[in-house]
Amino acid sequence: MLLALVVTGCGVSGTDPVAAGSPAVGGQALEGAEPLRVYFTTEQGTWPATRPAPDGAGPQEAVDALLGGPTSAERARGLTTAVPTGNGQVRARASAGTVDLDLPWPVAQLDRTAVSQLVCTAAAAPGVPGGRRSQDVLVRVHEPGAAGTPWDVVCDDTGTAAPKRPASAG
What we know:
The chain is of the alpha+beta class. The chain has one domain (34-163). The chain contains 4 helices and 7 strands. The strands form 2 sheets. A 5-stranded mixed sheet has the order 3-4-5-6-7. The protein has a two-stranded antiparallel sheet with strand order 1-2. A hairpin with a 5-residue loop joins strand 6 and strand 7 (161-163). Helix 2 (59-67) packs antiparallel against helix 4 (112-123). The longest helix is centred in the last third of the chain and has 12 residues, at 112-123. The N and C termini lie far apart (73 Å). InterPro entries: GerMN.
């Protein structure tokens, strides 16, 4: 009996749902259909920075943003770049599920992280026809003076350039 008095006397009563205002919402969306994801470096490896994409942006605009380096806000977050600057133009052209990336440097002269930055930025760019996830976009890397087959690479789930694996027979 004493327990029943204590429980009923504590002021807790059953309630129905109470209106508490609008539901919570996430962060603001960036303008445009798809943002630019530009891959920079941190002590832990490559890391994408998201920027608003200008209308009609594609792989060339994404690569140009990468070559421009991190913004002051991105630098304040610890983002840097391993991609060399001022030594020629990087060209990026999209076709169905593929980006051709023409480099002014031989791949062997680039830091491994710089290659990942270039490949992942190109693969994640808006405007690549085919509607593939960035990890499924084939990036063909063309080197200067290399007559022959380009390097076929993809950007894996960790933001690292990796050789394109042949389709399994099956």
